[in-house]
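Ticket #4471: complex job returned nothing on first submit. Input attached below:
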Amino acid sequence: MPKHDEGRRAFLVGTAIGAGAAASAALVPEALAKTSGHDGAMHALAANDAAKHDAKMPAMGGGHGAFFNDDDARTIAAFTERLMPGAPGKPGATEADVLNYIDLALAGAYADEQDFYRRGIIQLDAHCVAAYGKPFRHINTAQQDEAIAALEHGQTIAFTWPTAQAFFNTLHKHTMEGMFADPIYGGNKDFAGWILVGFPGAQMQFTTDDMLSKEAFTREPVVGLQSRLKSKRS
Amino acid sequence: MATEKTDVVIVGVGAAGGILAAELGKAGIKVIGLERGPRLKTADFEPHDELRYFQRQDLRPDPKRMPVTWRPNTNATAHPIPIQNNGNQAGGGTVHYGAVSWRFHEDDFRVRSQTIARYGEAAIPKDSSIIDWPLSYADLEPYYDRAEYELGVSGKAGNLKGQKIDGGNVFEAPRQREYPLPALQIDQVGVNFNAAAKKLGMHPFSTPHAILSQPYNDRPGCTYCGYCQAFGCHVGAKSSILVTKLPEADATGNFKLITGAVCHHVNSDNSGKVTGVSYYGPDRSDSTIEAEIVILAPFIYDNVRLLLLSKTEKFPSGLANSSGHVGKHIMTHIGARGFAAFDDRHVNVYMGPSAQKNSLDDYNGDNFDHKDLGFIRGAQISAGPAGLEGGPLGTAMSMPPPPGVPRWGAQFRDFFAKYYTRYVALTGQTENLPYPDQTIDLDPRVHDAWGLPAPRMTYDWRRPNEVARIEFINKKLMEIGQAMGAAHVWTAPFGAGAPGGHHQGGTRMGSNPQESVVNKYSQSWDIPNLFIMGSSTHPTMSGFNPTLTIQALAYMTADAIVNRYRKNPGALL
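Support reply: We reran it on our side without changes. The output follows.
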């Protein structure tokens, strides 16, 4: 364990019993309790958290169903996976369940973008049928990459509203959200996006040693809102 | 329609309004503050959530309900801008800001005369509209001092009564005493930035922040969690108006805050005075407050919009607008943006105070010789995260990958996975000049949720003077990145001329009623019982963040109202 981890633990304990740390005190016992020594435990903890949470919130179960039909879900799953493809040891959009994030968002916070997606998918498929004879979800990944690049650069004639670039930009933005937003929103499953880039989540404090370190910050746990909310309920 | 009477009504209880509420209340003046958003608590700001606060801007106006539109020129159609700079709750933008707290330079208050004296009149772009401020740094220094000490600002002096001090900003204007709190803890980003800048002969220092480096005034010190810009502080260490001046205002017993109140009209009579304001409540009820003094202190959009919406037969071009300058000379900070990414070290940019961690001032204001450079004024250069907060979502949205790396696909994934914890963003916050055709007016097409016309910006920063400055600053950013020993150094491409951050101007102050809207006390030249506060009064913008200057000016106005106006209501000049 790197030396600066020890310092942070001492700091956490010190702050918890010190004056003026009421807001963070509630978090500290759980943060300490969850701290463990290796990466495997971090994944196991995260998965365990998610499983417990799913039991309470069926809508967070993964996949889709809040908004997309099956075909549209396949289209969006394929598109977002091309934007952030997975590889061994490198979780991508599928592993992060970006589809589930977008599906829930379109049924909630982004409900006013439902028609944008519906029409965007229809136009995307029209472009792909014209270019490849098949809708986006059935063409191969090289063709999908080519189609996405055509959208990105506005080199299609199939789009009116939304424009090809607007559709690309929105899917790009929502893919990044689904990769890197807190898992409570339905993506970044088991902290896939955060583990990919080495982000430890919303830590409530960093020590001087943490901040001066030239090393990757690998101390567990990666923390998300779900664990916070549970600690508040208990 | 309910009607209430009070001594003073303040529209918008943020950086300026909160200070006036507390200071007038302490003097025994009855104050009602109108705030369109809620009054949140420190407990509301935990846990931190990048999607909610950075990406979806939960502490800012909802652009669907409160749109602001922008067009690059008068031939284009204006469309709503996606992100706004200002706040939408009691405490205003100070709740979510990065808390960077500068004093302006001495020459920031006299850009016109300084430029003419040093480079000649021809150096000033002909189509610009630069005027000197009607006050000097020395006039404002006591109020800067008061703001720093009452609110709580952390930093290190670089110029104490004229004596230059290593480690502070040696280019700062002279201060009478040290900061009330020592500088915040440096991080790996700051270590790298400082070393590179010193190697290049520049003068780096810890950026002053209204964030407590130690416990102060019964508030705890910073925990360095990294959630400053775009977020509320979960321990109250950020010296926002919410945790500093509003409790003081409450304690006076003379302050009443009305939340969920959308001011839509400033009422005036035929004697040439304002009589109060009208506002919509959360249930859309329409109420009126009658007051001896009206203080407008919302963001610049609503200062301009309210003055224009409140026109009468007596004031046919809007209130306080006999000069015709309301809505003109809009300025915003445009970032020259560079990035440095390391192969041999992590810098973990998401840790510690997020905005403008460490800075250098060598190329700001008139701190360097502009002769033969093709532009005047400069930029404040700093290091920090790409999105002004360090989470992966903010970085993914704000950092263009280096040339040769696409925005998506396996190559992007591998770039981002490797460098997210190994990059530093270098930002030049440029002092853009005022131009009369950079304006805010009422959008004829787009309305807000209350049916009021949206504020419309007509603005394009890509002027020759401004472009030359960004090109110059970008070179400096590249030099710094290379001196850091980064494996990759690159700059962001130019945008489409859209407004950047820290919008200023629209009700500028000046030395006479012909060329300006308010005097140095932010008092309308036309209507002496109307005060118009905030960055809309700035005639030029400085490369520094504006908030501490907004706050110092608010203290000065509070003193003028308490000590002079109250005894002798009328023009202060």
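Chain A touches chain B through 51 residues (CB under 8 Å). Closing as resolved unless it happens again.
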